[in-house]
Queue: 4 jobs
Job 1
Amino acid sequence: YMGSLERIRSTIMVALGWVVLGMIIVQVGFGGYGIMVKKFAQDANVNQLVFSLYRDLFCFPLCVVAAVVLEGKLYLPALHELPLFLALGLTGMLGNQLLYIMGIYDSTPNIASVYQPAIPIWTALFVMLFNVEQRPDMRTVAGWLKVFGILVGTGGAIVIILERPKDDTTAKNMLLGNIFLLGNTACMGVYVVLQKVFIFNRSAKTGVPSHWATLPLHVTAWSYMFGALSMAAASLYYVFGGSVTSTSFDSTTNTTSTSNIFVPPKEVIPPLVYAVFVSSGLCYGLLSWANRLVPSTFVTAFWPLQVVVTVI
């Protein structure tokens, strides 16, 4: 009996170690994404929505192939499950990714990384709201520390938003960037908790077939499909609004050029490849896998590592 108990404990520790390694890889990947976007995509005057659209369009088939190869075969969602995957696509892909790149454009990768520790705060609030995890026990030191951490993180976000540069134009852009990044972190928190509540927690109340709980890559793939569809629908604003062209000024040659926003320049290829294979396919796949195994608050507790990655 003691031997079997020891083997179980050893298996759990090994699995936990793999989860920790996976979450570190995720934060390194996400941290590098902000730098790539700021260095290449913004300098090339790439539209934020169009960049996010191509990211999701290319990532969806990649995730489908990975899901089929690693999880045995292709599983299709039932009709009544589509609203759930739509909600995951709207929060984890459309809201999270689009607001992040908009925030990067109006601020800096360092500021974006500073906001990322808000994700575990949002997650803690949402899991308490959905009763996924126990509320802080105020009779214990751990309970008070959890509440204190939420309050400190919230206060830090408020201070960043209220901090105003001297230049009015810069101040306006920075304020918008801060608001976008706050929305980005909230969307990611909702995405992780929705996964946990309606897919990976095998509750009879969810109505979701239990096989999704063992198919994290399929969950990621179908979420990306709806993320891509949402991005495409949002992109129709430019088509019907007659804003499919953009104008950029080259300070080295003092010339102005006009281009179609749906035809990305070659400078956008490096961040797009990185976004598809690393920050989307790899990182989101690992997130879903870890969210299946451990509490959502544990999964998102690694987000502050992005600050270190970006600074380095």
Job 2
Amino acid sequence: MAANGYSNGHLNGHNGHNERADEVPTITLKDLINDLCRELTTPKKMINLKSGDSGNAYVVAVIEVIEDFRRLAADTIAVKMADIDKRVHANNRDHARRYVNDLNIELANIERTGRILGPAAQTMVDDLFVSQKRVDATRASKEVLTAITKFLLICDQLDVYFIIEIIDLANSLIHDIRNARTTEEIEEKYNILLNVLEEIDESTHTRLAELRSSSEREAVMAARELVKSSHPIMYSTTKVVLNNPQHADLCDAAHSDLHRALGEMRAALHGQSSEGGYASSSYLDGYGQLAAELHHFQNRFMMDPSQYRVNRDRPDLEEILERIVTRSAGIADEPSTRHERKHKIIIINNIGGECNQLRQALQELLKEYESNLF
């Protein structure tokens, strides 16, 4: 496994071990591998083969599949090299190019195993009733598929690396903002940061739609929400501290929150726990579940009015809202929640005024919606 880099740190971002490096992380990748598997090893094609032209046609088809992928893989490597030159900081390009080295290794493996599969498949179709020949052909096709799968997994890891590169840029900008000496400098750096955070948000949104693991989706979703809620506070407190240095602790805490949120995102994209252990703790789970419920609540309103049913959809929306209230209250129990925030959450939930207003607002919205429908 070390030969293709999957146990090496450079295939896992800048550092750390990717806890699902050998798994297929995305839906598209899984579907593509399944399609290729059917093309190369599906038993149905072998069972229906007869000696002669049909068997030879199958051998030709298999070789064409491998050759088509080989050409696609070569083109992909060229594109990835261009992306590295365009998207990766000059100091990190040698590091990033190690991915391309591994891609070239797997491309060579695809070509090597493809050369073995062609004759093995031809030998099999020449005499289908010899079991060893079928075994040899199947083994050869699996070796080709293994090389292709490794190639695709490295491509996916490189795509994640590109997102990580943007996250690292954001962290650098946050550091610059903290060290800024004027309001103008803060605003200039913050505007640049906003563009970078928008790019991160778009990239992770695309990634979310592709992830197969529900726990990774929740972790990335939670980290995205933490980033969105943290950066305005970081900006405001940084400006305040320029003229009120006695609030430096508050500013440092806001910067730390945003760095940590980006760290959670970085770890979640790699499918690993963060250095602080939050990615596997109730801290991130709590925020992730709350973010998921908010996302679910919003999506439930996006329905065809003709499909709305009072007895089904109204109770469902009410139940989701109650879960949001409960998840929000649970944030107060997180060890990372500051005392003043914890106190405010407890007061809101104990008194119940704000929560009841939220419930009442939903009832009024549903009442208005239903009156327009019926």
Job 3
Amino acid sequence: MHRGVSFQKHLDRLQQRTWNLTLHRQQNTIASAERDSFAIPGHRFTQNGSINFDDAEKACQSKTTWDLLRSSLILNACSVETFAKHNYQILSWTRRLMGRSVFNAMMRPTVYKQFVGGDDFTSFQETVSRLQTAGVRPLVMVTLEEDVKDDGPDADELFDRNLKIMIDCMEMTASLGSQNPMMQIKPSGLFPLALCKSISTEVPFPSSQPEIVEKIANSIATSKEVKELGKLSTTEIGELNKALNRINQICEVAMKRKLMIMVDAEYTYLNPCLNLLTLAMMLHSNRSEPLVAYTYQNYLKETPNILLKDIELARTHGVTFGAKLVRGAYIYKERALAKENGYPDPVCETFEKTTENYNRSMDIMMEKVVEHPGKFCVTIASHNEDTVKRGTNKHIKTSFGL
């Protein structure tokens, strides 16, 4: 998973914040009774209730021979450690050597086609229709953010344009008529990266500072400006209020269209801010059903503990709670940053330790789903066959009291 996402991040950079709609295969979603509590459309099950991953005919029925050959070549390339670690440099060098036009002509029908669902409504609709024949529902992601200069004189124009792209995509996703429409967003495309870092420094543990979460949630709901937040400068407070206004517009569309939005997590030096904003969005929007979910990266050692604290904050405020469970995508950079800055490596030591973390988070959320129907929603977002099987079996057992 790390390798695939690493390769995808290069495509994101190439697109320069254009409208890309990445489709993720939804392996397993466990939600409330009102939101289709257990559905894996299109999958065939064995007699004991587990998913049959050996049904190649079903898995490949929407693919052409060229699709399968392309996938095999690209995914095998992504599995090469050297390429996965240095893909951006390798592809940048290739683009300089070939020229932008030839490089783009080569990338669009291959790598771009492999990872990106479309760049306009027509191509997106075609991809969705094709995948639906195999029982795959879309989880849409608009790729906007990257570590680029976003604090210049035209920054607000950039963020407002990103907001419009997000809202247009939300409206389009909701109009597809899909059951339980979902969309993944990166709020970091709506305000300066420096602000995200500053807020993360000021509020490192949002669920342990509920008064700040409440302040942000109140600003989103009422448009009342935040006057101060820790040591943020006057300029940063102004940027924060603009960001909260944009987030309010996203929440309003989600509530109006009954569209679940999953807020993506990123690097550890940005995550406290993203976690704070998501919890505030939950207080505002998750009144009767979980429309806002946060992404929990289980390759980070402390993730299950953070999840428990966030659940408690939602419970004490009487709102529903959504979580998307992933392993994580930034292992190389996180370890490099820890070594460079002299702090403990936040990433689990081994794949097995990450799996233990993931299973713990999965158990926490599934128990909550069963104990509090309609109040919790969890998406098991994994490419790992054993993880998906475990999630399926765990849900069957907890649902029927086995």
Job 4
Amino acid sequence: MVAQNIYGKFGDELKATANAMVAPGKGLLAADESTSTIGKRFDTIQVENVESNRQAYRQLLFTTDGFEKYISGVIMYEETLFQKTDDGKNFTDLLKSKGVLCGIKLDKGPVLIPGDGKNTVTQGLDGLAERCAKYYAQGARFAKWRAVIEVSDKDPSDLAITLSAQTLARYAAICQTQGLVPIVEPETMVLVGKHSIERSLEVTTRILNATFYELNRQNVSLERMILKPNFVLPGRECPSFNKCFEQVTDLTLACLQRTVPPAVPGIMFLSGGLSEKESVDILNNLNKANTKKPWKLSYSYGRALQTSTLEAWRGKKENIEAGQKAFMKQAEMCSKAEQGKL
């Protein structure tokens, strides 16, 4: 069966955007923390979670001189997409002037599936086409939707995997009809728990297989999307964590080779609770590996690009330059890892 063209007039633009997102030596800055999530980050540096501080912090990131050498696009929360710099310039216009693509977080978070234990499905499909059109008009050219997949001896359930895959595909199809490249993020919570790396491989493989089945069934153009998966990792409480960690490169690549079609232009990993160093080292090892990799392997990092920046800034104007230097240093490290040059 030949897939239907659902993207209409946006075909060339979507393909160009997807390819630009995975330009050599570049990745994404995930600055799409919700108000509550950024509050948790601010708590670690004793900064009050108010809009003025959120605007000041994102302004620090976006006005960093030269960060566009390492960052192809920025994922934003709705509040940030409509914010401005202190001198009145829209953040979207600022980023566009630097050649940086603007993205928007579209999901509205996970909710429990009735009668299915701790398993969840992500909400936010209602009115999604209208929201996509609104964000496109504001300058967004790509979007992100995160599904949360629990890992244990019994989870995730088949129902949870099916619902998450269907929802990710539905979101992706709607995005493409409205001119936004969808980042499809089925995040298996591999670091949470005491499970083995083999269990993480099994679950990640199942969710990716189900997701691409649904993407094809719902006519999503694979050439016009980006995949944002987790690395295949053991749970932090796994008794053999350090030994299993040595298998991350081989098992992550094996999982992707078995599940991700070569039509997908790029795989941009989430950091998912890893440290800045761990995130860089794993990505570097993946790109240095001498094996089949028909897609670009890059980064879409939040904490792994921002932890040092937050610590250097600490909410003080006099620390803006120090924060920007920390951001540039970590962005450069991620860029080198994307090229396998560390």
